[in-house]
Amino acid sequence: MKVGIEVRIDVTKIDKARLFKGKKGTYLNLTTFVDLENVDEYGNSGFISHKKNEGEEGNTPILGNVKVFWKEGNANTNAAKQQGQSGAAPYQQNATAQNAAESHSSIDVFDEDIPF
After folding, report:
1. Is 22 inside a domain boundary?
2. Residues linked to residue 30 through DSSP beta bridges, in sequence order
3. Does 65 map to a domain?
4. Checking CA distances to 45, which of 30, 55, 67, 78 falls within 20 to 30 Å?
5. Cis peptide bond upstream of 90, omega within 30
């Protein structure tokens, strides 16, 4: 099954020590967990965090959230949202979540040291 997932992270929470140089750029390994059965009050289906290094103990900080915006076999979900109609649950975004997303659409703080 294919799903479309939107990822939103707070770049100010990135641990710069976890950035590494590769052949074609600077990279950061991340981990995401997605639960298609459960959606929070903001329409999120999971979270994204730093990938744990080998032997690392404890949890890494949550950098942001993931939202399923499309699911194979349910292609009309996006079109319905764009027309103001509700999409099929659990992939619909409620008004409170939409207002919260719109109010946080700009980044207030930007760290010039991040290479992207």
Report:
1. yes
2. 50
3. yes
4. 55
5. yes
- Residue 13 makes CB contacts below 8 A (sequence gap 6+) with 61, 62, 63, 64
In a domain, 72, yes or no: yes
Averaged pLDDT, groups of 10, the chain, 116 residues long: 94 96 96 94 96 92 95 60 40 38 38 48
Looking at the chain, list the stretches that DSSP marks H as alpha helix, in order from N- to C-terminal side.
76-82, 95-103
User: How far is CA 102 from each of CA 3, 22, 41, 99, 106, rounded to the nearest angstrom?
Assistant: 23, 35, 15, 5, 9
Asked if residues 94 and 79 have their Cβ atoms less than 8 Å apart, the reply is no
Question: How many structural domains compose the chain?
Answer: 1
Residue 60 lies in a domain: yes
**What pLDDT sits at residue 1?**
86
Half-sphere exposure of 116 (CA within 13 A, CB side): 12
Q: Rounded to 5 degrees, what are φ and ψ at 27?
A: -125, 165
SS3 92: coil
Segments forming the whole domain that contains residue 39: 3-103
